[in-house]
Design brief:
heterotrimer; A mainly alpha (about 350); B alpha/beta (about 290); C mainly alpha (about 325); B: alpha/beta; 6-stranded mixed beta sheet; about 25% strand; globular; C: MetI-like fold; binds adenosine-5'-triphosphate; binds magnesium ion
Chain lengths: ~350, ~290, ~325
């Protein structure tokens, strides 16, 4: 009986063993930090983290066996990698909230950047002036233009690919959608710029051109997600509808689309979230304005991402005033993206036809 | 869209309409007459040379081993076959004397006259029970008064023996019903458009014995008004409900299926002409 | 029998025709949309070329910088690829490890939340990553890491030269790019890892494999092509990423190998973002021409990524 028990249990590190390894690592980290960087708590932590996988491996090699040691090494490394990745992301979110909160006020939400001499004097005196209302309006307009182009275009293309298309045209469209997915955003901006040079002449900037640029980025995302959703609709439903003598297009409109609508809306919302923070294409197509411009067909317009960029890199004097506005705009962007993103997920839940989960 | 639909788009729809209307008004439907029908998937001949007469207002059962082409044949009777890319047929299928594969004939109209119930219940998940029943009419963009709609819902659900079970929850989703109820809902949906012929592909294979009994009883009631064609793997079922039975067989994989014999159900099950048939119905097959 | 009422109720004559008509319109619309996508893409290439060509073919003396186009775009191409490769070298191993953590190590419920967060992070605008990089990461590295590297590792060409005190270096830019593309690679890798057939995993475990041995036997071979194509997509994204680089990098003209100094080759995208708003005339054409070059590079990388993915799938079938 006892021989059986020993043959079925392998040598395992005890809990105390793990604690000992951890403490030893910190001690070594302490020493290394003292030798190389001078003693600072953050360096001790950094070195301890970097040395811990090695410590685990070595001790497991000694106390257990090679296979266990490798297994432990991977487990620890993978977990540490996760921590390493979470750190900058957490820092980013934290920084945006901390820096952005300072100017996330009524003036910011309602004002624009046409500053009077009195405003500038007040700003010099440390008062909060200037806002991003015009940028929010601009983002709303430009993104709406993009959505108005991209969602119908993407949806109809997906319908063609899934419901009608056959043969070479489908292949061509599918691979071109792939290519479109990979277009760098700045190139989409240049394309739209070049297109509008032809229409309006060189050097013009309009909200419409920005919307077109964003729609180039958005369309493939809509096509992909809508296509996927349409393919999820069981063929039996289409056949049931045909068997009732319903023409194909009505089957699509009244049976297929309602069944897929949750996924399609989710995909479109996520596509909007994707493009709403695009900066580069708007930098070259829409430019910057000091005040609200409601007309997408004429004149420059400020959008939130471009506003963030310029307020940060050309903050004016004093620097802090502009950069605080940049952070507030960044916070705004992050909130918008997070809300859209969550909305997309919630829509998927709520609209999903019952019995199709 | 499927090839056949596309190629016939430009045909004279009106002619077919007139023909169908003329025939539809007649009091004595003539059933289906299939002659020399070859059914293909692309280049693959799945069913060859079917000649068959399906009597009106009776139940015809199609039996045979798996893969012999029963579903394929059934779907070719209301032009559902051509929904599959590359699928096509040769030959004629006469509905009350007119060829449903004739030039210019609109498959959409054919399918309104020849309804279909599928193996797996497939109510529309986005619609309520009542909407499911009305789907065929509503989707054809008929405006219905509330009372007319209610009448059709009740009549069809009663016709499908489902009314008493669902009358208090007509506005709830159809997918919330049990499998047997869903299948009867699909039958109600099919008969709501008042077709002449009802095709059923193994309608009971996903159902328990009690639901099966309910559907069988329903078929026997429906045959006074509809021509019914049913595919089944259940010999007892074929023997119980059908008036005539056709036995399909296949000589080997890759070969086309064909009709071995068709006769009165009693004869097929007691004294068939062909040895293959008697082997199959007595379970001595293969 | 109610045949005649059916006919009148269905009105099949008119219906048939409108059904046909509707079908033709709807089929036409959807086909038109598909074709419009093809046209748009052709338009992208065509218009970029049309507006870019004058910039390629220009006489150097007409431009203030007096470089030929090749001399102008060369360092930018170098900088673009260099920055993207640094980002990929940092992001790919981390992303794969994190994907493994989420798919095979983290508890189920935690894993779902983590997956959601990673997807969300992929949507955070890069301009935000950019200002975070210059506010937080650049000073951190400039104070703690670059001086040390400059003192102790300058025999490696990558770390030669005088270390930047502002932190606006190629390495900082590469690290921020890595943070930008990390969620993308992670999301794709996690997906393919999760798709590993349970049967393969269990077969391996049943042979007495440890978790890592199971992952090496079952998960990695199955997911390899997916991960590679995910990494290539990340690379494509890094090549085209604009704002993070434009905000962080301190650019100079020429080719620079050191990644910890204030002298860095700029990237194509960042160069466009910095110069375009103030440019006019031929300068604009030249910038558009560099955009065309970027388009070609990313097109190549993405095509390669799809190749890899496709090869992987047919391999998995066989
Ligand atoms: N969509 C299709 N494409 C190509 N071939 C098909 C398709 N559907 C069926 N077939 C082939 O046609 C032949 C007949 O199939 P069918 O489904 O009609 O058989 P069945 O008699 O209904 O079988 P079962 O009793 O299993 O339902 C088979 O060889 C099958 O492989
Ligand atoms: Mg079948």
């Amino acid at each position: 009986m006892s021989t059986l028990a020993t043959s079925m249990t392998s040598r395992r590190m005890s809990n105390q063993g793990h604690v000992a390894v951890g403490l030893a690592t910190v001690a070594v980290g302490f020493a290394v930090s003292a030798a190389l960087n001078g003693l600072s708590p953050s360096w001790v932590i950094v070195w301890s983290f970097m040395l811990y996988p090695i410590a685990v491996y070595v001790s497991s090699r000694i106390l257990e066996d090679r296979r266990q040691a490798t297994d432990r090494l991977v487990r620890v490394s993978v977990t540490l990698a996760f921590v390493v990745v979470v750190l900058p992301l957490a820092s980013l979110v934290w920084t945006v909230i901390r820096e952005g909160a300072a100017r996330f006020d009524a003036t910011f939400l309602t004002g624009n950047m046409r500053l009077t001499p009195e405003d500038l004097a007040a700003q010099n005196g440390g008062e909060a002036v200037g806002g991003a209302f015009h940028a929010m309006v601009g983002t709303l307009i430009v993104t709406s233009v993009a959505a108005l182009i991209a969602i119908p275009l993407g949806l109809f293309t997906a319908i063609y690919l899934v419901e009608y298309g056959r043969g070479r045209l489908v292949k061509a469209i599918t691979s071109m959608v792939d290519v479109m997915t990979g277009i760098p955003s700045i190139v989409a901006g240049l394309f739209s710029y070049a297109l509008f040079v032809l229409i309006l002449g060189p050097g013009t900037r309009t909200g419409l051109a920005g919307g077109v640029a964003l729609s180039v980025l958005m369309t493939p995302v809509v096509v992909r997600s809508a296509e996927e959703m349409l393919r999820l609709v069981p063929n039996e439903l289409r056949e049931a509808s045909y068997a009732l003598g319903v023409p194909r297009w009505k089957t699509i409109v009244k049976v297929v689309l309602p069944t897929a609508i949750a996924g399609i809306l989710t995909g479109s919302t996520l596509a909007i979230a994707r493009v709403i923070g695009e900066t580069a294409p708007l930098l070259v197509t829409v430019g910057l304005a000091q005040e609200t411009n409601l007309n997408p067909f004429d004149g420059r317009m400020t959008t939130l991402p471009v506003y963030t960029y310029y307020q940060y890199v050309q903050p004016g004097i004093p620097t802090d005033a502009g950069q605080s506005r940049a952070w507030a705009a960044a916070l705004m962007l992050v909130i918008i993206v997070a809300v859209l993103f969550t909305l997309g997920r919630v829509l998927a839940r709520v609209l999903q036809p019952k019995g199709m989960r | 869209m499927n090839d056949a639909d596309q190629t016939t788009t430009t045909g004279s729809v009106t002619r077919m309409t007139e023909q169908m209307t003329g025939v539809g008004a007649s009091e004595t439907p003539d059933g289906l007459r299939v002659s020399d029908l070859n059914i293909y998937y692309g280049d693959f001949l799945a069913v060859r040379k079917v000649d068959m007469t399906i009597e009106p207002r009776s139940i015809t059962a199609l039996i045979g081993p798996s893969g012999c082409g029963k579903s394929t044949f059934l779907r070719s009777l209301n032009r559902m076959h051509e929904v599959i890319p590359g699928a096509r047929v040769e030959g004629t299928v006469l509905l009350d004397g007119e060829d449903i594969y004739g030039p210019g004939v609109d498959p959409v109209i054919i399918r309104r006259k020849i309804g279909m119930v599928f193996q797996r219940p497939n109510p529309f998940p986005t619609m309520s029970i009542a909407e499911n029943v009305l789907a065929g009419i509503r989707l054809n963009s008929k405006r219905l008064s509330k009372s007319a709609a209610d009448d059709i819902v009740e009549k069809s659900l009663r016709g499908a023996n489902l009314w008493d079970e669902v009358k208090n929850r007509l506005d709830q989703p159809g997918s919330g019903l049990s499998g047997g109820q869903q299948q009867r809902l699909c039958i109600a949906r099919a008969i709501a458009v008042e077709p002449e012929v009802l095709l059923m592909d193994e309608p009971c294979s996903a159902l328990d014995p009690i639901s099966t009994m309910a559907v069988e009883a329903l078929m026997l009631e429906l045959k006074s008004e509809y021509t019914i064609v049913i595919v089944t793997h259940n010999m007892q079922q074929a023997a119980r409900v059908s008036d005539r039975t056709a036995f399909f067989n296949i000589d080997g994989t890759g070969q086309p299926g064909y009709v071995v014999e068709m006769d009165l159900t009693e004869k097929i099950f007691s004294n068939p002409t062909e040895k293959a048939t008697s082997d199959y119905v007595t379970g001595r097959f293969g | 029998m109610t045949q005649s009422t059916i006919e009148s109720a269905q009105g099949s004559g008119v219906e048939g025709r409108t059904g046909r008509f509707g079908d033709r319109i709807f089929a036409g619309l959807s086909k038109g949309a598909g074709v419009l996508i093809l046209v748009t893409l052709a338009g992208v290439a065509l218009f970029l070329f049309r507006e870019g060509y004058p910039g390629i073919n220009v006489d150097p003396s007409e431009m203030d910088g007096s470089d030929t186009f090749i001399q102008y775009v060369g360092p930018l191409v170098f900088g673009t690829i260099f920055a993207a490769l640094i980002a990929l070298a940092i992001a790919a191993p981390l992303a794969i490890a994190v994907a493994l953590f989420i798919s095979h190590y983290a508890p189920r419920r935690v894993a779902r939340t983590l997956g959601y967060l990673i997807d969300l992070l992929a949507a955070i605008p890069s301009v935000v990553f950019g200002i975070w990089g210059i506010r937080v990461l650049a000073p951190l590295l400039a104070q703690n890491v670059y001086p040390w590297l400059g003192d102790n590792a300058s025999f490696i060409p990558l770390f030669s030269g005088s270390a930047s005190t502002s932190g606006r270096t190629m390495l900082t830019a590469g690290m921020v790019l890595a943070v930008v593309i990390l969620p993308i690679i992670t999301a794709i890798s996690r997906e393919v890892f999760l798709q590993t057939p349970r049967l393969h995993e269990e077969a391996s475990l049943a042979l007495g494999a440890t978790k890592w041995e199971m992952i090496r036997q079952a998960v990695i071979p199955y997911g390899r092509s997916g991960v590679i194509s995910g990494a290539m997509l990340g690379l494509g994204r890094a090549l085209g990423e604009t704002m993070a680089v434009a905000i962080i990098l301190s650019p100079s003209d020429g080719y620079f190998w050191s990644i910890i100094t204030n002298q860095n080759s700029n990237t194509i995208a960042s160069n466009i973002a910095l110069k375009f708003p103030e440019s006019s005339g031929l300068e604009v054409n030249r910038l558009i021409a560099t955009g065309l070059v970027l388009f070609v590079i990313t097109f190549g990388v993405n095509a390669l990524a799809r190749r890899v993915a496709a090869a992987g799938f047919s391999g998995a079938d066989g």
